[in-house]
Structure formats: structure tokens, C-alpha cells
Amino acid sequence: MTEHPSAGSAASPLSPPAPVTGAVDLPRIEAAVREILLAVGEDPERDGLRGTPSRVARAYEEAFQGLREDPAELMSTTFDIGHEELVLVRDVPFYSMCEHHLVPFFGHAHIGYIPSPEGRVTGLSKLARLVDIFAKRPQVQEQLTTQVVEALMEHLCPRGAIVVVEAEHLCMSMRGVSKPGARTITSAVRGQLRDAATRSEAMSLMLHGRPN
Ligand SMILES: Nc1nc2c(ncn2[C@@H]2O[C@H](COP(=O)(O)OP(=O)(O)OP(=O)(O)O)[C@@H](O)[C@H]2O)c(=O)[nH]1
Ligand SMILES: [Zn+2]
């Protein structure tokens, strides 16, 4: 059995661990799921559950695929189009897994940046993919928000960047405090977007006039 390659490394939100190498250990997940089913008093051999351990293993492989993806590689395609003002992609849906309970939290991310003076921009889809790279990991919302903004700063060198994440956490909805509908909003702002007027313009573009 292999241990997590980055286990024990200092997990600073500002420097996400390097991508994990090697495939997900599907048989290990299957064995663990079987144990969970037994522990709650179920029969993993009954008809409806027989395929469940392998289904869960494949579902986890997908849910955590961001651990094996490299933001540097994703952001390596840039264009110089001389646009020096705000670029903003709003309402990017995402699904992540709360690292405390391993249940989903999900919602929308809004990502904006002011390109570098050379006008270096990336493809719009890459911004959405960047959210997925960090969402598809065991995660907390604040860290997801910070990791996306830090990756933008590191790989695009923009004059400023802003990321706002709005999410519902199933660990707060379906269990525990049981508050369905409660939404958590986090933001991370860097560079020129910290300036009050610029930040407020970006925030209002992100959060107002959206279809509900
Ligand atoms: N800051 C932050 N907290 C989170 C996030 N996701 C879940 N949590 C919280 O993590 C906390 C874990 O608290 P614990 O007391 O260790 O666990 P618990 O007994 O299951 O807590 P309850 O959820 O209150 O039942 C809870 O308050 C969750 O609401 C997140 O993305 N960010
Ligand atoms: Zn949780």
C-alpha cells in the first residue's frame, strides 16, 4: 500500500502541494467502503450494494482528480492581446469535497483579473478549469478561494486578481447544524484590485444582476 506522497508536507494555503503522481488506489478505496458498509450494519454482498465499493472508488477518483493536475501546466497557454483592463468570468459552477466531513460543498466561483502591462491573458476556459483543479480535492472554501487567486498571480503575473466563491456546504445542510440554504461567501483580492474603487466595480459585476 502506498501513502499519500505529500503527506506530512507543510500545507500552506499559499503554496498548494505539488501534483500527486501515480494513479488513485482504487482497490484500497473499495476495501474501505466495504468496511464502512459493514460498520454501519449493512450487508455489502446484498444485491443493491455489491457494486457500490467500486462505484464509490471511481466517484472518488473523479472527485479528487484535481490532486493530480498541475495549475502551472494549465496556465502555460497565454496570449498577448494588449487588453489591460478587467477580465471577469462569473458564475462558474463547481463541486468540491469538504475536507472535514468528506461531503460536498458546491456553488459558484467568480474570477477576475487585470492583465499585466503587456496584456498577457489566458483562455477564459482556463479560469474555469483552474477552479476545478483546486475544487476537486479535499478542501475548505477559504483555501479554495486563496489557491485560485494565488495561482492567477503566480502564473499570469496580472496587476491584480479577485476571486469570490459562494457555496452551500452539505455538512451544514444535511447533518450537524442542519441549515439548508445557508450560503458562505469568501473572497480573496490581490494587487490593484485591492484599491477600493476597482474592487467595488469588480464585486458589483460579480454579484449583481445575476440570473437566479
Ligand atoms: N471555515 C470553514 N469551516 C468549514 C468548511 N467546511 C466545513 N466547515 C466547518 O468545519 C467545522 C468542523 O467542526 P468540528 O466541531 O470539528 O466538527 P463537527 O463536530 O462535525 O461540527 P458540526 O458541523 O458543527 O457538527 C464545522 O463547523 C463545519 O461547519 C469550510 O470550507 N470552511
Ligand atoms: Zn464539512
TrEMBL record:
<dbReference type="InterPro" id="IPR043134">
    <property type="entry name" value="GTP-CH-I_N"/>
</dbReference>
<dbReference type="InterPro" id="IPR001474">
    <property type="entry name" value="GTP_CycHdrlase_I"/>
</dbReference>
<feature type="binding site">
    <location>
        <position position="101"/>
    </location>
    <ligand>
        <name>Zn(2+)</name>
    </ligand>
</feature>
<protein>
    <recommendedName>
        <fullName>GTP cyclohydrolase 1</fullName>
        <ecNumber>3.5.4.16</ecNumber>
    </recommendedName>
</protein>
<keyword id="KW-0862">Zinc</keyword>
<dbReference type="GO" id="GO:0003934">
    <property type="term" value="F:GTP cyclohydrolase I activity"/>
</dbReference>
<feature type="domain" description="GTP cyclohydrolase I">
    <location>
        <begin position="29"/>
        <end position="206"/>
    </location>
</feature>
<feature type="binding site">
    <location>
        <position position="98"/>
    </location>
    <ligand>
        <name>Zn(2+)</name>
    </ligand>
</feature>
<feature type="region of interest" description="Disordered">
    <location>
        <begin position="1"/>
        <end position="21"/>
    </location>
</feature>
<keyword id="KW-0479">Metal-binding</keyword>
<comment type="similarity">
    <text>Belongs to the GTP cyclohydrolase I family.</text>
</comment>
<dbReference type="InterPro" id="IPR043133">
    <property type="entry name" value="GTP-CH-I_C/QueF"/>
</dbReference>
<keyword id="KW-0342">GTP-binding</keyword>
<dbReference type="InterPro" id="IPR018234">
    <property type="entry name" value="GTP_CycHdrlase_I_CS"/>
</dbReference>
<feature type="compositionally biased region" description="Low complexity">
    <location>
        <begin position="1"/>
        <end position="13"/>
    </location>
</feature>
<keyword id="KW-0378">Hydrolase</keyword>
<dbReference type="InterPro" id="IPR020602">
    <property type="entry name" value="GTP_CycHdrlase_I_dom"/>
</dbReference>
<dbReference type="Pfam" id="PF01227">
    <property type="entry name" value="GTP_cyclohydroI"/>
</dbReference>
<comment type="pathway">
    <text>Cofactor biosynthesis; 7,8-dihydroneopterin triphosphate biosynthesis; 7,8-dihydroneopterin triphosphate from GTP: step 1/1.</text>
</comment>
<feature type="binding site">
    <location>
        <position position="171"/>
    </location>
    <ligand>
        <name>Zn(2+)</name>
    </ligand>
</feature>
<comment type="subunit">
    <text>Homopolymer.</text>
</comment>
<keyword id="KW-0554">One-carbon metabolism</keyword>
<keyword id="KW-0547">Nucleotide-binding</keyword>
